[in-house]
Amino acid sequence: MSLLIRNAEFDDLDGLTELMYAYIVGFYKKPQPDIEKLHLLIQTLFEKKEGVQFVALLDGRLVGFATLYFTFSTMKADKYTVMNDLFVLEPFRDTEVEAQLFRECHKYTKEHQFTHMSWITAADNKRAQKFFDNMGGVQGDWVQYSMI
Q1: Is residue 139 part of a domain?
Q2: Residue 24 φ then ψ, to 5°
Q3: Considering only CA atoms, which of 51, 53, 52 is closest in space to residue 16?
Q4: 69-91 pLDDT, tens per residue?
Q5: 0.85 cut: is pTM over it?
């Protein structure tokens, strides 16, 4: 099998859309966003100004994606990345596909001189937490909140 991790490209739009719906609706059970909004997000990431998206292709088939957003830390007075998404189809979880996507995000962060990469996962997603522990991730000291 041939694994390729690379930046998402315009030709990935349809396959990436399907993967993102599998992630949003299938995995996280959230409402399906409008396709126009999703495509606008993907196209924004193609520009690599506010973030970047990577895809995993196994024998030419899209099987996963990861998204980094760029932001700043006041405490470090510098920029860092937020790995907002790391998703692979079920058969590829806890495999080299998932590990290589993660490593590509970390490599991008270091190569582009961001101070660090951060991410969150659902409190009940024990599989992902174990994966991140195995990848060398360290749980932070902060408690996350959100508001609608």
Answers
A1: no
A2: -70, -55
A3: 53
A4: 999 999 999 999 999 999 999 99
A5: yes
